[in-house]
Description:
Elements: E1 3-10, H1 21-36, E2 45-49, H2 53-57, H3 62-70, E3 76-79, H4 85-98, E4 104-111, H5 118-125, H6 131-135, H7 141-156, H8 160-174, H9 188-193, E5 196-198, E6 201-202, E7 212-220, H10 221-227, E8 232-241, H11 256-269, E9 278-280, H12 286-295, H13 304-309, E10 321-322, H14 327-331, H15 335-351, E11 364-371, E12 376-383
Parallel strand pairs: 2-3, 2-4, 9-10, 9-11
Antiparallel strand pairs: 1-7, 1-8, 4-7, 5-6, 8-12, 11-12
Helix pairs in contact: 4-15, 8-12
Amino acid sequence: MKIAIIGTGITKFGEHWDKNLSDLAFEAGIKAMYDAGTSSKDIGSIYLGNMSAGRFTGQDHLGAFIADKIGVTIPSTRVEGACASGALALRCGINSILAGESDVVLVGGAEKMTDVSTSNVTTGLIGAGDEEWEGEVGATFPSLYALMIQRYIHEYNVKKEYISYSAVKNHYHASMNSYAQYPKEITLDMVMNSTMVSNPLTLFDCSPITDGAAAVIIANEKEAKKYTDSPVWITASTQAQDTLALHNRASLTTLNATVTAGKKALEQSNKTIKDIDLCEVHDCFTIAEIMAIEDLGFYEKGKGAIATYNKETTLNQGDVTINSSGGLKACGHPVGATGIKQIVEITEQLKGTCGKRQVNDAEIGMTHNVGGSGATAVVHVLEK
Length: 384
């Protein structure tokens, strides 16, 4: 059975002091339904990706919460998988269609993160790691990824500047993205000389704290043809796991879950990595992007950083464009929404509606969404 994306919706990413979680989720969902030409009565079920609404906003039971706001009584379910919650919600929606439970599904992701202190956000996010071995001893995600970048530099003798250039590139892409949190360019000197967060990661190596939501409408082939003559097809949806704690991994410079999910996605879509024109990868930190493009197979291990520095992944400069949206780094990272934002970006690129940041001749795109430090990885392949 073929499954199509027939509508997309997204909010501005950033600090929304005048909107709550339901406002953001509702805005993205309504935009997606309007784009698809559907109404609430056409939707068979809802899946919402969210990591920490209970901690950040006090609101749990989000499935019922969102259904109530939209004014429907159809099955509505919250999906949680740390920062991979959005992509996992999409997998749930896909499986609902494959199982014959729904013909048309609304899939969203939302997070409201700026109403609590930075320390509360940091504490909440480390729940995506191993609380016993990491959280209780004071580890944070910047410190965990600092271990990764230190090991990467040591193993591959790579200059930190090459790794950090991914932030420069992503801000360049975000400067052309109206919904990005930081639509402005930066320099490599700004990254290298910004405030140290966890050595050697500086502030501009790290993705920000963000509010935002994104949504898509997906449908089976028969229903999709009722709404559009040019749907974007989901040709692969895969998920893989690794250890929760970083210290239990075989390597600090490879996310095995990414490797496995990426290989499965290419097999499922009957593609090779050279067929992929653009990819949204999970760049929660600059080193995360470099490892992702290597683990997915775009570059050999140890070669991704210099390729990025040489602008091979910059918009329309090489064989593949990485993070045309600006990535998590510059577009923003409302954790539950990120996986769906990636899908929205690839869908709009394949439809040719991205304006100045349009990837030339985009036919096939990939998304890569990670939970925690790599315990969960979800990969999707989309085609025109």
